[in-house]
Structure formats: C-alpha cells, structure tokens
Here is the input.
Amino acid sequence: KWGNQNKGFIKVNKVKGVADGFETIDQKLKNQAPTITYDGPFSDHIADIKPKAVTGERIEESEAIRIAESFLGEITKGDFTANVARKSKGNLPSYTIEFTRPGNNIPDIIMDISEIGGHIIWFLNTRTIENSKIPIKQAMDKARAFLESTDYKGMESTGSLRENNTLTVTFVPKEQDVLLYPDYVKVEVALDNGEIVGFNTVAYLISHTERDFPESKFTEEEILDRL
Here is the structure.
C-alpha cells in the first residue's frame, strides 16, 4: 500500500515539475517577446509600448476630421455629420471621430486618428449585416484590394475569421521572405455586399520598424531533424 502511494506521490511531483517548467517558459516568453495580440481598440497593451511607426507632425482636430472624411469617402457613400467625440492620451494620442447619419442618435461609423501624423488607427462601421451573399474568396480579394489602395502595400494574408456575417482578414508585411507577424493589420469585410466595415492598424503602428535579419544558422531539414 505504501509503495503505491509513493509511486503516486512521485508521479504527482513529476507532473508538477513539468507544469513548473511550462510556467517558466511562459514567463520567459512574456518577458522577451513583444505583445502581438490585439483584441479591439481598448486593448491594454498599447499603453505599455511606444509606437515605432507613428511619424509626422502634430495635427489639430480639423485636420483629423479632414483625414477621416477622405478615408471614409473611399469606402462608403452617405450623408454623415462628423465630429470629434473625444481626445485620447497615452503612448498613442488620438482623436475619436464619429460619423452620424441624419436622424440617428448614435454614431454609424467610428474612427481613431493619431494626433501625430494623422494615421488611421482603427475604423468601425456599426451597421447591421444580416446575411452572407458573397464567397469568402471574393471577400479576401476585397480586403487585399482595399489594402493596396492605402499605404499598406506588399502585405500577405496570414489568416481569416468568419463571424457575424463578416470576414476579418489579417495581413502582415513580408521582407526578405520573412513574415513580420507583430506588424499585422486587420481588415473586416461585410459578407452581404463586400463593403469594408473594419480596419485596425494598432499592432502595425506599435511594432513596425526597420529590422536587421541575421543569416540563418540552420537549414529547414536540420530544424525538422531537431524537432
């Protein structure tokens, strides 16, 4: 009886040791790897990192509205009233611009413009999307075409998520055959008519910078052998 209990005790300690090892690895990754996940315009991590791709002069509210109206004009049609709803501080100061159709009490479209340089930080069309009519490939093509019409060119898609009759596609830059995952942008396409209803560049503005790529020390075959 004691022998069985002892074996169980040893087994539990081995499992605990493995768990502790994973916890150590996880903590090391948190300390050494950049935060790359972004789950919305209010993600906490943007307060902890100084943006690397935000450049330009400081702009006033009127210029932020002009930039927002110009951007919106390339995406959708409609009679909107634009106003600055608030001004955010922190490491990525911005103006929140709201666009409202006549007769509506809540904004139809919301957009953040960086105070430095007037970069589009994120954009969201709040309209209801009741059904899916267009194929996924067509939505992917719409997302890529939209990016090509902006300053974000030469990006490669790394994945997509279909949800609530929309398709959100993630794109990253590619340099020297290296995909720069931390520098991602997201484009959301409505599956009822292919309209761009969401755009998010926070991770890109925070992480994108010039990088030095060292020579590879191992071949793909050597990596597979080690695995």
Summary: Residues 2-32 form the longest helix (31 residues). The chain is about 30% helix and 25% strand. Residues 1-16, 32-44 have pLDDT under 50 and may be disordered.
